[in-house]
Each structure stands twice: as structure tokens, then as C-alpha cells.
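A reminder from the course coordinator: this example appears on the midterm review sheet, so study it carefully.

Given structure:
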């Protein structure tokens, strides 16, 4: 049995759509853009500003220290004047449950939440942020707990805590209910609004106007909700596009992929991974063998989580292959990708826009050892490239050789990494990528193959992207270093559009913490 279960793409789209009453005729009647967000206080002019980025942060129980809180303190120290915060997903671990929000989200980020001084009294579904907090959905935010495991977890919670067991995997009785907890925490859930009151609610909350259409107004300290699981926002002439990559990350069919998956080899690898996971979980479940070292606990839980993710990716690749043999294509959220293409083209046609940012959970390029060649990584790369090719075709020479995105931001890989895509001949060419997924949970190493990613058949291999910075897990033994991180991004005033990145690092080595920031640089 997997430690978590995950709904299919169609179910995710349907459940999240129902929560925002996707396609309800009131939106058309009132002229509302269902995916546009206006941030109160937007200066509307090309002035300088900064914002913060964090991701994959939602770790909970630590007996002596909290990496997530150390990173949050770095953000507070270096980003007090930030205009907004971007979160690249996996807000809480391990299964996106509402039970995990008080300890795994509200407590570490209490300074950004109204009433955070008394964080224990806050309800996760009634949060008001003091600064715009703009997250995307991570895979863990969608995860659920299989009923037998949820029942076992709930029944054994007290003895596990009393014994200090290593198998305290930070789960309760249930999971996310297909992203419901995340939606209740961050989205304006219209399903809770009675039909007779819907029009009035929309008129009150969709009171801003962008490009001639009404949209939701995000008001810090008063109304801090998002319109949908994917959305667009603007600040000081910079457009931010937030995508839900969980609905276009299904591994490609063999016909669409350069990689040919041998089902027998995948099954054999899955068997080996499952055996390693079972052995590890048995060792963690033995209270008499438990070490009281939080760092060792982090190492072992990180290994267990990585094995789980590797197994899940193989399962998705096997399912994709089986679907292809049955004449079916992998599930794909084409509606979202079409929206992104249209929104990005519109942004390029708008003279008021000077820069464009993208944020999503799954990175299309990354050199972190466990994610760089996953089927989900390759699928996101494939679908984003097609979308960006469509944008490039629609714009022609209008973008003047400038990358279609000034900065793209992702998480999922548990590290901080900066890469730039090379001259691929596609719409993704030249785009700088910031991978910010090392803000609190199970850091990973860079792959031994090194910082250069390549693609293409053996006879025509070319450079895809090159990494210029990687922070995560490094060293061994007494020299082992864990570099947890977040990022401050500073945007210069005026045009041409320029920005700089400042990594904020909370480093743990030899049982001690050291917080610092790296020199700023242009990605």
C-alpha cells in the first residue's frame, strides 16, 4: 500500500471546479474574469518592488528545531518590505490535510497572518493575510490517505507519540479530500455561498476591473482569497501567472516521449524500491531502535518520502503505457493550458505590462537527483513547451528575441536551483528558471551527472539547460550540510525589465544553525 493516494486529473479538475462554481452563468452576466486577481495597493506604474519566494515548506513535527521556521525568520529579516509572497506548493505535508495546517502552516508563518500572535486560535479556513500570499497547488496538497492507513494512523497516534516512534509520519485521520483543505485555506470557495446570495457575493468581491473585465480584489487584512486553482495577477506592471501543474504532469505516452518505458523493467525497479521502503519503514516503526537525533530522523524520513515519490512516478508511467496500449492518451488539462496561452499573449499585447513571471509546482528543468528525469518532469516540459510555442507563433517578432517569460519559478525538487534554458528553437528558449523547493522538508542532492541537462536522441543530443546555482544537501559524515532556503527577488524601476535574486539560507551542519544570504545576482 502506498503511504498516500492521489486522485486522477479529471477528478482534480472536477472537484476544484465545483468549489468555485466554474462556468456558472453569473460570471458571464456580470462580466467577470474567473481567473484574474487584482491586488489592492498595486501602484500601477513601473516602480521598483520586491517579493519573496518559498516552497515545499510544510513540514511539521520536529522535537528540537524547525527548518521551516528558520527559513520563515530569514524571510522576516530580509523581506519586511515585500509586496507579496509566492509559494511554489506543498504548503503542508504529508497529505494536505486540514489537521496539518495549524502546526505546519499557521504557526511558522504567523507574522504574516492577522491574529497570528494567538495562532492556536486561528481557523485554517478563515485566514486573513497581512501581505498578499499567493500559493500554487503542490502534489502533497492534493494527496489523500487510504482509509486503512488513515484508520491505523488515527488509532495509533497516541502510542506513537508516547513512544517517540520514528514512524510518526505527520498524518492524522484523513488527507486533503482532493485539495479541499488547500481550497478552503486560500480560495474564495463559492460552493459555500447559497445560490440566492451568489450574485451579491460576486458583486462585492469581484469589484476590481482589469482589461475591461471585473475580477476578484485581494485586500490584505480584509479579504485575502484567490479566484481559482490557476490565476493571474499584476503588480507595478509585472504580470504573474500561477498554474496548477498537477493536472498536466501525467507521464507521456511512448509515442509522445523520447523515452521508451519497458514495463518489465519499470515493474522490477518498482519492486526494488518498495522493498527498500518497507525495510526502512520497519526500522522507523521500532521504538526501541529510535535515535533521538532530529537530523537522523530528517534523513530517514526524507529517504522514505523520496522512495514514495519514485514509486508513484513509476506507477504513473506504467498507467500511461497501459493507456497507450489501449489506444488512450494521458489525461491533460488542456483548458488550463489554453487559458495560459491566451493570457500570456494578451499580456504581450498590453503596453502597460513590462515583465512576466510564471509560478507552478513541477519544474520542467532541474538537476536535483530525484526529479530531473521523472516522467512527470518530462511531461511538464513537453506541455509547457507546446504552450510557449503557441505563444511564440502568435506573437511573431513582437517579443524581439526576448524570452517569453522574464522568470519562471517552480518547486517540487527539494533544493534551491537557478537554471537557464538554452537556444532550443522553441518558445522556452532563454527562460531563466528558479527552483525554490528547499524551504523546510527533506532536502536532496544534485544529480551526479552534473549541472548541464541535455535532450534529444543519441545521434543529435543538445544542451537543454545549464544550472548556475544549487543548494540542498551536500557533503557527507561530519561535513554533511543541509542548506534550507527561500529567495528575495528585487525588481528594478522602469524599463527594460530587470530583476535580481537574493538566496536566503538557513544552513544546518554539525548540529548547529547558521543563517545568511548569498550575494544578489541576475538569473
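Designed residues:
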Amino acid at each position: 500500500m502506498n503511504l498516500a493516494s492521489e486522485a486522477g486529473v479529471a477528478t482534480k479538475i472536477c472537484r476544484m471546479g465545483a468549489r468555485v462554481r466554474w462556468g456558472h452563468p453569473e460570471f458571464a452576466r456580470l462580466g467577470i474574469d474567473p481567473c484574474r486577481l487584482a491586488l489592492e495597493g498595486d501602484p500601477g506604474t513601473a516602480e521598483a518592488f520586491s517579493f519573496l519566494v518559498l516552497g515545499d515548506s510544510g513540514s511539521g513535527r520536529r522535537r528540537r528545531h524547525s527548518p521551516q521556521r528558520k527559513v520563515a525568520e530569514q524571510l522576516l529579516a530580509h523581506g519586511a518590505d515585500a509586496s507579496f509572497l509566492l509559494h511554489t506548493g506543498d504548503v503542508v505535508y504529508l497529505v494536505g490535510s486540514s489537521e496539518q495546517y495549524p502546526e505546519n502552516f499557521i504557526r511558522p508563518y504567523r507574522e504574516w497572518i492577522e491574529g497570528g500572535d494567538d495562532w492556536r486560535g486561528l481557523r485554517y479556513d478563515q485566514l486573513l493575510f497581512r501581505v498578499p500570499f499567493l500559493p500554487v497547488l503542490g502534489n502533497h496538497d492534493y494527496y489523500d490517505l487510504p482509509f486503512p492507513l488513515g484508520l491505523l494512523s488515527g488509532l495509533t497516534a497516541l502510542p506513537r507519540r508516547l513512544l517517540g516512534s520514528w514512524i510518526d509520519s505527520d498524518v492524522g485521520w484523513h488527507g486533503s479530500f482532493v485539495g479541499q483543505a488547500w481550497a478552503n485555506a486560500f480560495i474564495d470557495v463559492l460552493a459555500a455561498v447559497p445560490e440566492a446570495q451568489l450574485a451579491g457575493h460576486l458583486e462585492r468581491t469581484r469589484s476590481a476591473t482589469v482589461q475591461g473585465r471585473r475580477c476578484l480584489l485581494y485586500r490584505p487584512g480584509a479579504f485575502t482569497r484567490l479566484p481559482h486553482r490557476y490565476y493571474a495577477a499584476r503588480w507595478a506592471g509585472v504580470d504573474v501567472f500561477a498554474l496548477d501543474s498537477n493536472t498536466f504532469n501525467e507521464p507521456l505516452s511512448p509515442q509522445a516521449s523520447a523515452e521508451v518505458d519497458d514495463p518489465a523493467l519499470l515493474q522490477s525497479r518498482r519492486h526494488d524500491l518498495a522493498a527498500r521502503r518497507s525495510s526502512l519503514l520497519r526500522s522507523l516503526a521500532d521504538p526501541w531502535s529510535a535515535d533521538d537525533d532530529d537530523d537522523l530522523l530528517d534523513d530517514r524520513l526524507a529517504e522514505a518520502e523520496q522512495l514514495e515519490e519514485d514509486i508513484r512516478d513509476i506507477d504513473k508511467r506504467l498507467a500511461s503505457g497501459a493507456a497507450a496500449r489501449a489506444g488512450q492518451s494521458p489525461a491533460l488539462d488542456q483548458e488550463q493550458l489554453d487559458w495560459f496561452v491566451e493570457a500570456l499573449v494578451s499580456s504581450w499585447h498590453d503596453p502597460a505590462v513590462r515583465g512576466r513571471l510564471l509560478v507552478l509546482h513541477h519544474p520542467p528543468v532541474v538537476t536535483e537527483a530525484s526529479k530531473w528525469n521523472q516522467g512527470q518532469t518530462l511531461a511538464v516540459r513537453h506541455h509547457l513547451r507546446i504552450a510557449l510555442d503557441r505563444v511564440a507563433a502568435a506573437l511573431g517578432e513582437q517579443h524581439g528575441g526576448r524570452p517569453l517569460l522574464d522568470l519562471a519559478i517552480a518547486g517540487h525538487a527539494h533544493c534551491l536551483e537557478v537554471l537557464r534554458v538554452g537556444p532550443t528553437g522553441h518558445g522556452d528558449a532563454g527562460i531563466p528558471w528558479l527552483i525554490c523547493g528547499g524551504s523546510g522538508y527533506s532536502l536532496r542532492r544534485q544529480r551526479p551527472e552534473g549541472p548541464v541537462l541535455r535532450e534529444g536522441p543519441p545521434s543529435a543530443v543538445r544542451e537543454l539547460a545549464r544550472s548556475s546555482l544549487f543548494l540542498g544537501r551536500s557533503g557527507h559524515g561530519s561535513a554533511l550540510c543541509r542548506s534550507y532556503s527561500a529567495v528575495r527577488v528585487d525588481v528594478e524601476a522602469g524599463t527594460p525589465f530587470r530583476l535580481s535574486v537574493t538566496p536566503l539560507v538557513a544552513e544546518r551542519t554539525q548540529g548547529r544553525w547558521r543563517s545568511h544570504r548569498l550575494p544578489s545576482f541576475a538569473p
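Confidence is low (pLDDT under 50) at residues 147-169, 287-291. The domain at 9-517 is CATH 3.60.21.10 (Purple Acid Phosphatase; chain A, domain 2).
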